[in-house]
């Protein structure tokens, strides 16, 4: 029997696990709640206990695995196998994850940043179609990403290659970004960014639009609300959609001109708007790329959903 891989996707609310074949097929998956109490000191022991319990249930041992891969938020030192500054996990100090997991389980352990790992997953088994050149962009609360160039994940000199959310796209009326800069892509293209744009244009809009009424009445407005109303032809929602498309389309055009990937894969919660989102971004992309890029780089929607993280984490073992 060929040996298997364990993939772990560590998030602020849950830890997802999967047992996969070396071809990337998921055979078993489960999850546990992330316990961030006591400065996140329970997280690694909980991960170890969960894996031990699952291996007992399945009558498997360390000898059945070639490795464990994990994606984590925060600043990851992939050589030392440590994480620091993962504030959504309450990890303020350096966490020696590799040392703890390897000594408890006796299985080789590999780790990388969560967005990089999701990029590897979509590249290997998802919309990246296992091409050697793929950029993954995730539109969630913020905007994250990962870059695979000529088959290798790019990390950069400071380990922050692929921070696509901090490309500057708004020069005219920039919002402040949490990174300390102004005008970053994530201030206008994340779930939060779309709400920023909605409030900006609602203040200037004098017509009678449903989205305007929702804002004026203090109702909760999300990115999904905006896209649903834009699909229905709501005038204010369409204004927001056009500006969002402009910013994201320009960012994708610039990424494509520098890296010329086969696919720019767009995922994350905001991408649930589907083909409608892609159509607006594609139009701007086409207007801002030169012919060789326009014909060789495709914009596509991610298709692995929540499995991208565990699949990509497993692929770290094979790198």
Automatic annotation (TrEMBL):
Any one annotated GO CC term: cytoplasm
EC identifiers of the protein: 2.7.1.2
ATP-binding is among the record's keywords: yes
UniProtKB keywords: ATP-binding, Kinase, Nucleotide-binding, Transferase
GO MF terms, alphabetically ordered: ATP binding; glucokinase activity
Pfam families recorded: ROK
Enzyme class, spelled out: transferase
Biological processes, Gene Ontology terms: glycolytic process
Domain of life from the UniProt record: Bacteria
PANTHER family given in the database record: BIFUNCTIONAL UDP-N-ACETYLGLUCOSAMINE 2-EPIMERASE_N-ACETYLMANNOSAMINE KINASE, ROK (REPRESSOR, ORF, KINASE) FAMILY
Family: Belongs to the ROK (NagC/XylR) family.
Protein name per UniProt: Glucokinase
Organism, as annotated: Streptococcus australis ATCC 700641
Gene: glk
């Amino acid at each position: 029997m060929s040996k298997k891989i364990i993939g772990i996707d560590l998030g602020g609310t849950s830890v997802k696990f999967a047992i996969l074949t070396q071809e990337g097929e998921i055979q078993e998956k489960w999850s546990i709640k992330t316990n961030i109490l006591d400065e996140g000191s329970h997280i690694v022991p909980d991960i170890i206990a969960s894996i031990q319990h699952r291996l007992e249930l399945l009558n498997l041992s360390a000898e059945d695995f070639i490795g464990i891969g994990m994606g984590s938020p925060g600043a990851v030192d992939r050589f030392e196998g440590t994480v620091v500054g993962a504030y959504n996990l309450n990890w303020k100090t350096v966490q020696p994850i590799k040392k703890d997991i390897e000594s408890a389980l006796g299985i080789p352990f590999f780790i990388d940043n969560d967005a990089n790992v999701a990029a590897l997953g979509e590249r290997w088994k998802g919309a990246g179609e296992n091409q050697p050149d793929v950029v993954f962009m995730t539109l969630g609360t913020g905007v994250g990403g990962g870059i695979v160039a000529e088959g290798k994940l790019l990390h950069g000199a400071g380990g922050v290659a692929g921070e696509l959310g901090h490309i500057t796209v708004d020069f005219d009326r920039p919002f402040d970004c949490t990174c300390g800069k102004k005008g970053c892509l994530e201030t206008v293209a994340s779930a939060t960014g779309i709400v920023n744009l909605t409030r900006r244009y609602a203040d200037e809009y004098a017509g009678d639009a449903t989205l305007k009424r929702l804002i004026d009445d203090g109702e909760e407005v999300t990115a999904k609300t905006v896209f649903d109303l834009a699909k229905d032809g709501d005038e204010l929602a369409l204004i927001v959609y056009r500006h969002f498309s402009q910013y994201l389309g320009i960012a994708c055009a610039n990424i494509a001109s520098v890296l010329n990937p086969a696919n720019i894969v767009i995922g994350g919660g905001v991408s649930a708007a589907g083909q409608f989102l892609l159509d607006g971004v594609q139009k701007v992309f086409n207007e801002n790329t030169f012919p060789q890029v326009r014909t060789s780089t495709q914009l596509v929607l991610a298709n692995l959903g929540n499995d991208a993280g565990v699949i990509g984490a497993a692929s770290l073992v094979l790198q």
